[in-house]
What does this fold into?
Amino acid sequence: MAGEQAVCCAQRVPRRDLSPTAPPRGDGRWLGDAVADLLTGSRCVGCATPGALLCTRCRDGLPTRAGPAVLDPWPRGLGPVWSAGPHAGVLRALVVGHKEESQLVLRAPLAALLALAVADGCAAVRHGAPVPGPLLLCPVPSRPGAARRRGHDPLGVVVARAARVLRRWGHDAHVADLLRQAPGVRGVRDQGELGAEGRATNVAGTLFCPTARLDRTARRHPHGRVVLCDDVVTTGATLQESSRALRAVGVPVLVAATITTTPRRSTPGRPGFPADSRARSLPPVGGTH
Ligand SMILES: [Zn+2]
It folds into this structure.
C-alpha cells in the first residue's frame, strides 16, 4: 500500500482542474445537455455571460485555498470541517447548477474544489504531516429517493472525481462508500425546511455502515483514514450523523470536507466561512489521529 506517499501540504489548484469538462463518453445525459445548449445557447452560471457554463473570469475567481467551516453551535461529536468557500455567488451557482439542474460539465470544477477542501483539511488536522495511510473519501448518503428524483447522484460522482483529482495531486485517495440509510427509516424531511435542532433530530439514527462494506474497505485499505464528504454544510447535522454512524463501527473520521458552507438561517448575514480562515483556530478535534 502506498499510504505513506500521501502528500499533505496546503494545496494549490491548477486552473485546468477548475475548468468544466465533458462527462465520460457513454453518458447519455451529456448528449442531451449538448443538444440543449445548441438550441438555447448556454450562459455562465456565475455571471450569465453567454458562452461557456463557467466563464474564464468566474473560474479564475474560484478559491485556491480551503478553510475551516464555522458552525455555531458546533455539533457534538463532529470533528473539523473544511470547505472551499461560502455557499454564495459562483460557488453556490456551481453546486446548484450541477445538483438541481443537471449541468454535468460542472462536476470537474466541483471535484477540484472538494479535493481542495480534503487536501487542506488533512494538512490542517495533521499540522502539515502526511496522512499515515490512504485517504478514503466517504460520501454522505443522499436522502431516500433524492437520487431517483434528480436522475443522477451528484455527490457520488463529484466525490469519485475528487479522488482522481487528489491522486493527480499526489495523494493516495480512494472512494469508500461506507454509509447507507438505515432500513425502515421513513419520512426524513428535506433538511432545507428545518432549523439547527430540527435538522439534528431529523437525521439522528438514520445512517449506518453495512458490515460487508466495512469489511471490504478494511481488506482493501487496512490503514485508510476516512474523510467525510458532502457538497454543502449548513448546521453540520448530516455530517454529525455520518460521523456517529462511522464511530459506531469503530471508524474515526479524520476530517470532513465540503464544497461550500452555508451561513445559518438564525443569524442572517453571518458568514459561515471566515474571510481570514487561517487566522481561526480549528474546532475541537474528534477522532483525528
Ligand atoms: Zn462568469
Remarks:
- The longest strand covers residues 225-233.
- The pocket of zinc ion is lined by residues 44, 46-47, 49, 55, 57-58 (CB under 6 Å).
- Residues 1-9, 22-32, 265-271, 273-289 have pLDDT under 50 and may be disordered.
